[in-house]
């Protein structure tokens, strides 16, 4: 019995292409229990692997300004208490500008606020 040439090449081809290893995975999307067959590094099911179906991983950022609907027609200096430490601080209020920092100068940095809250037991 002689082997045909085409049979030989197809065997060779077969060995080459079955090397891909897939694995049954569970989607890592929060609350999703879909399983899917994929490569070991895959994280999301068919549905969730499309980035538009996943919410953006947005870091929750603290709002650092407040809206002050003032009636002033010229710049005014007003005093406020820092939302973080309660210390009074001054801001200059400009006509037409209604967004102002709600923290004293020191606590406008997130790092400083966090360390203040840590030392004062507030989270
Ligand atoms: Zn999913
Ligand atoms: Zn402060």
Provide a descriptive summary of the structure in words:
The protein is of the alpha+beta class. The chain folds into two domains: 7-53, no CATH class; 65-119, no CATH class. Helices cover 19% and strands 21% of the residues. It contains two helices and six strands. It has helices at residues 5-17, 110-119; strands at residues 23-26, 35-38, 65-67, 76-81, 88-93, 99-101. The strands form three sheets. The protein has a two-stranded antiparallel sheet with strand order 1-2. A two-stranded antiparallel sheet has the order 3-6. The longest helix has 13 residues, at 5-17. The protein is elongated, with a radius of gyration of 30 Å. The chain starts with a helix and ends with a helix. 7% of the residues are buried. Bound molecules: zinc ion (2 copies). One zinc ion binds next to loops. One zinc ion is lined by residues 82, 84-85, 87, 103-104, 106-107.
